[in-house]
Specification:
Length: 126
């Protein structure tokens, strides 16, 4: 079992930055590809970014490429999402997810994850 707990959400003005973190329980964190997803009311959850088990490969949604950076620390069992140049359309609940077989790129298209966090709200004001 892996429990994921997100933190770092909040209110920020357009153009600002936020850093989200996801802390994972258990000693098997390095066995999972990790990803960030987001969801706004009335819309389906969408892929944001993913990083493979070793941290050597990353994949991003086109909408965040060049602005967001995903990273992980397999000693501290954390995955982070640095979000810069935030836009009002980035407003959403952001979720951390883990999958034990997918590549970082595959995380953008597969429907199911092994574990999800409960999410953290990011609000970007114009």
């Amino acid at each position: 079992q892996v429990q994921l707990v997100e933190s770092g959400g909040g209110l920020v003005q357009a153009g600002g930055s936020l850093r989200l973190s996801c802390a994972a329980s258990g000693r098997t964190f390095s066995r999972y590809t990790m990803g960030w997803f987001r969801q706004t009311p009335g819309k389906e959850r969408e892929f944001v970014a993913a990083i493979n088990k070793s941290g050597s490969s990353r994949y991003y949604a086109d909408s965040v490429k060049g602005r967001f950076t995903i990273s992980r620390d397999n000693v501290k069992n954390t995955v982070s999402l640095q979000m810069n140049s935030l836009k009002p359309e980035d407003t959403a609940v952001y979720y951390c997810a883990a999958n034990n077989w997918a590549t970082a790129q595959a995380m953008s298209v597969i429907p199911d994850m092994d574990y999800w966090g409960k999410g953290t709200l990011v609000t970007v004001s114009s």
